[in-house]
Amino acid sequence: MRSVRARAALGATVVVAVALAVAGLSVLLVLRANLTDQAGLQAEVAAREVAGQLALGVPYDRLETGDEEDHPVQVTDEDGRVVAVSKDLEAISGTGTDRVTPLSRPSAGGERDDADDDDDDDTGAGGADPARGEVSTDDPDFTNGTATVDGDRADYRFASVEATNEEGVTLTVHAGAPLAAEQRAVGSVRGAMLTGLPVVLLVVAGVTWLVTRRALRPVEGIRREMAAITASEDLSRRVPEPGSRDEIARLARTTNETLTALEASVERQRRFVADASHELRSPIASLRTQLEVGAAHPELLDVTGAVADTVRLQALAADLLLLARLDAGERPGTALLELGALVREEVSQRTGDRIPVTVSVAEETGGLEVTGSRTQLARVVGNLLDNAERHARHAVAVAVRAEGGGVVVEVTDDGDGVPEAERERIFERFVRLDDARTRDEGGAGLGLALARDVAVRHGGRLTVTDAGERGARFVLWLPGTR
Prior knowledge:
single chain, Heat Shock Protein 90, 14 strands
């Protein structure tokens, strides 16, 4: 099932079906229990009425059992023998014995006439009352069974109540109450549920389908627009953003933000390729011209210029290759480096600098150690020194110290400094603030961009500030190992 709407509708329908089934079953069980309890209460009342008569000594054949069809009665003695039944009772089950024929013997109360009845209220010699039976006050036992009264068989709820007659014989009265009302009520409710359940489920499925369709309509709009963007390769287009504040609106906003970042990345890549091509064209053209002149007029070959163009071309190609690796997500190395020693080594190799470089390394307990790629970090230090040499008037200084849980390398010059508005722009690729200077003097504009990328890949940062009254201070911070 590939449709989200179909899955949502099916899931909602299944959940509602299970919930309704559980709720309906619970209602039926509660309803049946309540109606059964009511029938049991009626049966108990009928049983206690008969038990009261037995306790008063009413003969078995004179017991008043009420409506025999509504309350069939069976009386058994201590041995489980039937001593009395209600009129027209033809069969019974659920009371312990299925016999419905009383024993053919005198009633337990004996044969008494009206005169004896009249003497019941008199006191005997000595003023004592005649012996009286009693009805048990314990909760009765309840069972379900059947009874056939005058040819009609039905289900009943039986209550069993014990009574002791005047002779001390314990009798058990089984009286029933019909369960027909309970069965009809439960059947009616069950039928209504079975009839209404499919209708409810159909309504739930339909409503869920429509609601889900409406909710997913913006998603379909986003999908269509993304398909159009993919087909046209026009990253300036954006998906529609619904006015709501739900997840779909956030998805649309995130998608547009992703498209914006992708458009900027593609545009940056295009500019990079164009600028790289432009930067490579100049030294290649110069080198070709010099070689062609040298081939035609060997005495005019500028070997020094050709070597300089070749070195510049090699350095530019190396910078472009490193930037490409960084853009591809190349992870920095994990070598343990002592940054103070690295700076001293890098400065010592710069023999052709216009201005001597002053190095200051703070001696720290445990050293100034960082982890990373030695080649890349050496390139960062070299690029910062190259930048300082191009702009300094009389002095270039490098300081290394521990700070903020890491190691700081500061490169300071006494040049014209960097305007505050341009302090982020200079870290963009192929950016040179002095457009009037020549390429040989100003470089290709990749050094600072490469230095910041390497610093960020190593978990650090590279910023620029003023160096007092004159000049610029470039601050490289890298996380330490302590």
